[in-house]
Amino acid sequence: MFPWSPEFAWDAYHVVFFGALYSVLATVAGSLALAAWRARRDARDGRAPAIAWHGAFEELPVSARACRHQLTGEAPGRACENGFDCRHCPEHERLEGLRRAQAAGQPEHFGFDLPLDRLYHRGHTWVRPEPDGAVTVGLDDFARRLVGTPEGVELPEPGTRLETNGPAGHLTARGNEVRVLSPVDGTVVETRGDGAAFTLRVDPGGVADLRHLLSGDEARAWALRELERLQRALGPAEVGAALADGGELVADVGSALPRDRYDALLGDMLLEP
Amino acid sequence: MDERLVPRGLVRAPLSRFLLWLVPWAALLGVGLYAAYLCLAVGLNQTNMDNRFAFGLWIYLDLTVIALGAGAFFTGFLLYVMKKRELAAVINSAVVIGFICYSGAVAILAIDVGQPLRFWFTFWHPNVHSMLTEVTFCLTCYLTILAIEYLPLVLKNRQLKKRPSMLLFEFELHKVMAVFALVGTVLSFFHQGSLGGLYGVLQGRPFAFRESLAAWPSTFFLFILSAAAVGPSFVLATTWVVSKVSGRPLVKPEVFDLLARVSGSLLVVYVLAKTVDTLVWINHTSFQLGVHPARFYDFAPFGTWALFAEIVLLGLVPALLLVLPRTRRDPRILVPAAFLACAGVATNRFVMTVQTLALPTLAFDPFLSYTPSWQEVASFLAVLAYGVILYSLSFRYLNLFPQERELAAASEV
Q1: Which of A31, A38, A259 sits opposite B180 (nearest CB)?
Q2: E strands within chain A?
Q3: Is there a single domain that holds both residue A66 and residue A194?
Q4: Listed residues A30, A45, A60: the one ending a domain
Q5: Distances (CA, A) of B389 to B60, B294, B392
Q6: Minimal Cα–Cα distance from A129 to chain B, Å?
Q7: Other CB atoms closer than 10 Å to residue B309's CB: what's the count?
Q8: Can you tell me the distance from the alpha carbon of B22 to that of B13, in angstroms, rounded to the nearest whole number?
Q9: Which structural domains are found in chain B, ordered by start?
Q10: Please, is B100 exposed, middle or buried when counting C-beta atoms within 10 Å of its C-beta (0-12, 13-18, 19+)?
Q11: Searching chain A, which residue's CA lies closest to the CA of residue B148?
């Protein structure tokens, strides 16, 4: 019934009942319309990758969100709140100032290759700045052993714009899909390599800001933490990481796991819960 | 086969076992739908209700599920408005339960009222002096809101969220969820109240009639309070049941503790208010209406035991068990206490609906008895089956309990 309907009377009952009803309907419709309009605006502004990462990051367990300064001891117990993007972290500079040189005796062997001539992203991709200003991006050895020989590799076409923490490709390993996080902002110039050994040559469009990436001792500390997470995820029930654990990570971790566990492991380690 | 639809990292039963689990519920739903068809096609003569016993199993079911479904609005209110972040662990499940309860209630009402093609009459030709009109408006609006609150859960399904449009809409919808939580709370408060007020204004039924506080009878406030009090208990109880059935830990003990604390505190207030209301009714209201209160309990099976069971056994006892930290922290007491609280609100709605109509109001009136027909029972059970099916599907394909993965991983270490 509308105010102009013949049955409508301008008395308190009709005004209160219908005033409340239409207020509620207007609020509900308005909120829905606002959400739809904002979603459209986000799509137009290309915010989908950032929002997808925001959602994924929120779902990560605390153990996977350790702050880089927790790994190196400046901020014990601190979890990251900035989606692993230290460039926007108000605490990063201060904590960086507290960093002390790591004592000698840092492990050199992790059971997988961790060349220190490059920088690492928490999603297991690496970045190597090239002399011409471009950067090369690839999947680290840890992730390559996780995915083994993927049956599907989708890489961004040359000319595609990459955003830090946005997708830089998709892999299908033993029927499980997982996306690869981009460690940098820039435009893909060239793709090379086969399978998980792919590399992307990326033009950052100026001097690449790589402050959010890990190198040297930080990368080592992170690699140790990742091994610990992997051991926890792979370990038999009620045991977890044990003193006897060690050796080299097999070349195809998925071959030793049932499918549902492998799927969860890929999501855990490549930050796509 | 359906692994790609199951949220990553959650362990679910094989599809064949899941389908087998659904079969009996689907059969029950099928029988219920047939019964509903009979009621709608042939008429209400398919039921054992009549002009004197016009409210039966269906209205009792409606009032009960609406009260229990209050867990959805109240959990949303506590999370989004009162910022009780711990409840993010159960809000998804609470929304699904609320949606099931309210959609089930609306479906049963549609059968009870009949003529479903004329559903719009209530909006176009409303009796604006009727509390039922307010109930209808609030129920439909709140069900719409629950559907909107359910939508982001569905859009977060593993496959759907791969579509950028779904992902973005879900993200933006989540940002305005506080508005829906707040509107839902207001609506839920009012229709719970109006359902209670509906009995409180029955001057010709001294058993139900209550004196007014401001413009509303006391039952208006008691229904709101009891629904808010048992809502968290129902969320707790259902979470426990799902955890047992699935064999997975779903939420941390702190979440149960908070739900129990909120439920227990509100139950204490409710039991106090209900006791005062009952004393006023026994000592004042019923005499004013010319009935000695003892007469209400002369007719078997509704003796004073019903009053005792409702207020003490299923009210005060669970309230104390839930509110006292020592008993609340013992799972062997916590869960039965939550079930007792839910049984308490169900008993209250039964008393208000069935006992009110069964008792004679005039000297020459007989005590009426009523047994629901199989069509009524089958429709009732169909709502249960519908709820189990929808919840099972939601549990399998949506991430209802965000702490589940973390807890499962911890239990394996």
Answers
A1: A31
A2: 119-121, 125-129, 135-139, 152-154, 161-162, 167-173, 176-181, 186-192, 199-203
A3: yes
A4: A45
A5: 22, 45, 5
A6: 31
A7: 16
A8: 12
A9: 3-408 (1.20.1630.10)
A10: buried
A11: A32
Question: What's the whole-model pTM score?
Answer: 0.89
What are the residues whose beta carbons fall under 8 Å from the beta carbon of B68, sequence distance 6 or more? B97, B101, B230, B231, B234, B342, B345, B346
Residue B178 one-letter amino acid = A
Assess whether A70 and A33 both reside in one domain.
no
Q: pLDDT digits over A174-192, tens only?
A: 999 999 999 999 999 999 9
Amino acid at A6: P
- Structural domain total, chain A: 2
Mutate one of B80, B153, B172 to test the A interface: name it (highest A CB count within 10 A).
Answer: B172
d(CA A136, CA B350): 71
CA distance B406 to chain A (A): 6
Q: Could you tell me the residue range of the domain that residue A36 belongs to?
A: 1-45
CATH code for the domain of A256 = 2.40.50.100
Exposure on the CB side of residue B223, measured as CA atoms within 13 A? 32
With a threshold of 0.90, tell me whether the complex ipTM lies above it. no
Say whether both A41 and A60 belong to one domain: no
DSSP A178: E
A37 and A69 together in one domain: no
Are A25 and A101 in a shared domain?
no
Residues A35 and A97 in one domain: no
**Integer-rounded Cα radius of gyration of chain A:** 24
pLDDT average per 10 residues of sequence, chain B (413 residues): 86 94 98 96 91 89 92 86 91 95 93 87 86 84 92 92 92 92 87 90 91 88 95 95 94 94 96 96 92 88 91 96 95 96 96 91 86 95 97 96 83 57
Residue A242 has pLDDT above 70, yes or no: no
